[in-house]
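User: I'm putting together a teaching handout on how sequence relates to shape, and I'd like one worked example. Could you take Diaminopimelate decarboxylase from Companilactobacillus kimchiensis, show the sequence you're using, and then write out its predicted structure as tokens right after it?

Assistant: Happy to. First the sequence, then the structure tokens directly below it.
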Amino acid sequence: MIIDELASKNGHLMIGGVDSVDLAKKYGTPLYVFDVASIRSQIRKFKLAFEQAGLKYQVSYASKAFAVKAIYQVMKQEDVHIDVVSGGELYTALAAGFPSDKISFHGNNKSFEELEMAVKNHVGVIMLDNFHEIELLARILKTDDEKINVMLRLTPGISAHTHKYDQTGQTDSKFGFDVESGQAKKAMQLVLENKRMNLLGIHAHIGSQIFGTQGFIMLAKKMIEIAKNLQKEFNYWPQVINLGGGFGISYNEADDPITAQEFISQIANELKQSCDDVPEIWIEPGRSIVGPAGYTLYTIGSRKDIPNLPPYISVDGGMGDNIRPALYQAKYEAVVANKMGQENIETAHIAGKYCESGDILIDKQELPETKVGDILAILDTGAYGYSMAMNYNRNPRPAVVFVENGQDKLVVKRENYQDLISLDRDY
Ligand SMILES: Cc1ncc(COP(=O)(O)O)c(C=O)c1O
Ligand SMILES: N[C@@H](CCCC[NH3+])C(=O)O
């Protein structure tokens, strides 16, 4: 998000036509706020880019980025697929009324119960990740009319240029069937022999928060090469090639993401050059759909000044609602929501309230003059914020509000202290 492009009115940050300072007053802080129009617009950009490129496609929202009932309902309205990685995400999506035939079920260690739940609910496709899962699924599919679509997640041997914890496509990865060593071929054979599994195609995901098109072009090329080898071996041509997600977003000025249009047109060129019968192309964006739409509002509290060093300005949340700075050294930017347009006068550390020295949300943030009670808005927190939130130090998780067309709606209640002990039992 570019700070200069943020909307403001009377010195207040506006989100989706709603005054963010009013939201902080109405719902309290910390508060996650999502601009739903931004989510819809990003989905439409992906779809349009595929249509312009003339590819058969499917956009599947990677819901690990943000998985609550309301977002699954937005995805249903936008008529996209979703992917889930656990029984909990599947349960939430189904409870939200999301159609099961548009769900892909991922994960590197799906349990018998999770696979059974997926089969019983007739999910659109199960992404098989390892031999253990092929075995479990074969046990679950007891009769011929229990046929289910599957895809094989492959490890294509491509390292994305991103944080180590965000890489998934390299050979040394916990995800997927390794192509180099022949695991992928063996898995393909097992699945093709099982008449209760319908092999829809092949999948790979090289990582997350990736900039540039190079990695994705390499991946598209590699997937066609793999498909051609499999065709020779098994006379099988995939109906779908799923290229995963991972499209980077701009968290700060240094980040320079590619647009959906750039990425998809280049992939389309590569695919059309590589083969005559281009399969349907699926992508699984998570961060790029919800990340830029999200803001976290905090109230500024204590301040610690140290001679000749930047001050520590603390807010009422921190690593419990956004683990990304501590976990991936992620760099965010913030504005003071009730002082938009005011001149910056200092650089400060934005500290969280958790009992950890590493609980610093922003290492260096330019700020106008601030005081206790001001509202700080950290930008681009829509992905992997709420979904990775936790109760460390027994801090309740914040509420989530959706805004659209000047209206706000609470979609997840704030946890309270009673919620925190609701699972505890006396001893
Ligand atoms: C298989 C798969 N698909 C899609 C994604 C979504 O990635 P992102 O949110 O970076 O688009 C992930 C997460 O890294 C993933 O593991
Ligand atoms: N949780 C990661 C993205 C997913 C990485 C692995 N699939 C992040 O916040 O960047």
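A couple of points you could highlight for students: The mean pLDDT is 95. DSSP finds twelve helices and 21 strands in the chain.
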